[in-house]
Design a protein that fits this description.
It contains 13 helices and no strands. It has a domain at 273-328. With 330 residues, the protein is an all-alpha fold. It is elongated, with a radius of gyration of 33 Å.
């Protein structure tokens, strides 16, 4: 069977690229929709009104919603792995991935004696055939490698291909994905279409490609990789990790703000109100001083000094009040 007609088809690669572009382009809109739904639900249950757009509270909520969307997506993928995970070939034969062929053959004979239809009247013919298939797959280096990388679906096609084709198949989907994304990025910039600024995550996507290479190494572990991968990971794990890393890297700017504290940017609306309040207060104080004391002093410079001192006093009180509020919040 031709290796190109397998589970990882070109259509699935194209759909991965399209979904990646859609998420890059419309991530802000998706988060905004969930944010609006969150505010409506909160107002219904608690009566708290929606904050003004672009305010500090609004932006904080946006970052938190982005973080939780990524977290829920990760939980969803992990659930999918758990739900679809089946007993692997090594567990069925009760052998370790690092056992020798002699140990594998010995264990197979022990188990077959219990189900062989020619030796036991109640023997299960179907189970016997399945055990034979598992044994031959694990005994064949090429099929064993394909099984560990792609799962049971690879057994049919991996028998008629070379190890080189199997290795190429293992990384072909990733090469297509990265190549397709880079091509679209270059074309969009060439024709001066709005560039996808978040594509600096290509540096991070190198992690995915590294994961691919390590997945090849773990299929035949040698020092020091046998310590990095002491047990075989389920074949579903790699694809789920790839998908999660792609979404995680896009959401990282929002997650970073939640995980690492930064100096808060003052709310423009709140700052404007404070400036207006302080200006009004200083104007009133200056007017009162002029009305009360201007005529009392022959030297007009004394009046100016008195006004400056009063302004400093008001500013000092406002600063002390602001520091107290900051300490209470922290």
């Amino acid at each position: 069977m031709n290796i190109d007609n397998q589970s990882f088809t070109n259509s699935s690669i194209v759909s991965d690229i399209i979904s990646w572009i859609i998420w890059c382009s419309f991530q802000e809109y998706f988060i905004l929709i969930f944010q609006k739904l969150f505010y409506q639900a909160r107002k219904h249950f608690t009566g708290i009104n929606e904050p003004l757009p672009h305010s500090t509270v609004f932006l904080k909520d946006k970052h938190k919603i982005s973080f939780f969307l990524t977290l829920f997506y990760f939980i969803y993928k992990i659930h999918g792995i758990y739900r679809n995970f089946s007993e692997n070939f090594y567990e069925i034969l009760k052998v370790s991935p690092y056992d020798s062929k002699r140990k594998l053959k010995s264990q197979f004979r022990k188990i077959v004696l219990k189900v062989h239809p020619d030796k036991i009247v109640s023997g299960n013919k179907t189970e016997f055939i399945e055990l034979q298939l598992i044994y031959h797959v694990l005994l064949n280096a090429r099929q064993r490698f394909a099984y560990e990388r792609f799962g049971p679906s690879s057994i049919e096609w991996s028998d008629g291909v070379s190890m080189f084709e199997t290795l190429f198949k293992s990384i072909k989907s990733s090469i297509h994905f990265y190549g397709g994304i880079i091509l679209i990025f270059l074309v969009s910039n060439l024709f001066k279409i709005k560039p996808y600024k978040k594509f600096w995550h290509f540096y991070g996507l190198g992690v995915c490609f590294t994961l691919e290479i390590l997945s090849l190494v773990r299929s035949n572990p040698t020092f020091p990789f046998n310590y990095l991968f002491p047990r075989k990971l389920p074949f579903e794990f790699l694809d789920a990790t790839h998908t999660f890393i792609r979404i995680f890297l896009l959401s990282w700017p929002n997650i970073e703000i939640i995980l690492f504290k930064r100096k808060e940017v003052p709310d423009i609306l709140t700052s404007s109100k404070k400036i207006n309040h302080l200006s009004t207060l200083l104007l009133n104080e200056s007017t009162d001083l002029l009305n009360m004391e201007y005529s009392c002093y022959a030297n007009k410079s004394i009046v100016k000094d008195r006004i400056k001192e009063k302004i400093k006093e008001v500013l000092f009180k406002e600063k002390m009040l602001y520091n107290e509020n900051v300490l209470k919040k922290s």
